Amino acid sequence: MSNIQLLLNGWYILLASFIFAYLLGSINTAVIVTGIATKGKEDIRKMGSGNAGFTNVLRSVGKVPAILTIVFDFLKSIIAVLVGGFLFGIVFTSSKDIDGIIVIGKYLCGFFCILGHSYPLYFHFKGGKGIVTAAGMMLVADWRVFVIILATFLIVFIFSKIISLASITCACLFPVYTFILTFFIDYMNFNYPISYVVLCTGAALLIGLFVVIKHSSNIKRLLAGEEKKITAKK
Predict the structure, then answer these.
(1) Domain extents for the chain?
(2) Hey, which of 66, 120, 148, 211 would disulfide with 58, CB 3.0 to 4.6 Å?
(3) pTM score over 0.70
């Protein structure tokens, strides 16, 4: 049975994986943790930069809430991607390209989780920028990319002390690293189809572009020399 036939037979399972990833991503930890920490008196989206993410929680609420935010945002992405890979494996179980298809499924479910995090259904579609959620997706989809991205993030952050600059740099390099690894290692040495390289790189490009667009205000401040270096609320 061809991949197209398998897709037509199992489209509803794939749709369910995307919906699950989006709904899980919509559980915005920053909003929940801030509400608990302030006993319902504050909304992180009305504090500091207004972003419902790790950095703003760190600056506006404190270190412990920020740690909880980063841990749970990371975990929800891992769960969404693992479930997505599992369901894609069920649909395409008889495909000769199953390994590559599962990886592509992980990227797609990761994207929907990031979409949910940034536009959460439960919180009036106003969420974060998806950096931590994207990192969780990378770890499960391709740990090699995750390691290189993490190293890049740490290098840029150590020298600049600006999280947004490190995040934007990583978003731009995500598709580049993905192409290098999938083409020069997977395609040339392990006989993965070229379509695998194209789809993985395309997914990484889509996610990277989404993250960059979400950081448009940060880019303006960086160009103007007004972006703040990281500080934590004591």
Answers:
(1) 3-223
(2) 66
(3) yes
